[in-house]
Amino acid sequence: MTTLLINGRIWQWSQATLAGPKAMLAAADDGTAHTMAEWMLLEHGRIASVGTGVPPEAGAAHTIDLGGRLVLPGLIDVQQCVESAASGGAPSLAGHPG
Fold this sequence. Notes:
Elements: E1 2-6, E2 9-13, H1 21-30, E3 34-37, E4 39-43, E5 46-51, E6 62-65, E7 70-71, H2 78-87
Parallel strand pairs: 1-6, 2-7
Antiparallel strand pairs: 1-4, 2-3, 4-5
């Protein structure tokens, strides 16, 4: 299934932030840590492309008008998920600092 999200504010990490923690902090300091796109094309549940301006022709895609809403990347705490699965229960904050 193809889905086209339009008229949104879609957060994208910049290439500089993908170079490692020091680069990410530097990009955050100078304001280049992210850019904003206006549309996102999804194919089979995965991001196929993002951009600004006129969205691509998506044929029979299901189109969702975001009406200016913000789309953020999925931020996953992998350590917490692994610990939860290993313990067989709900996530616990026991033993986590702060």
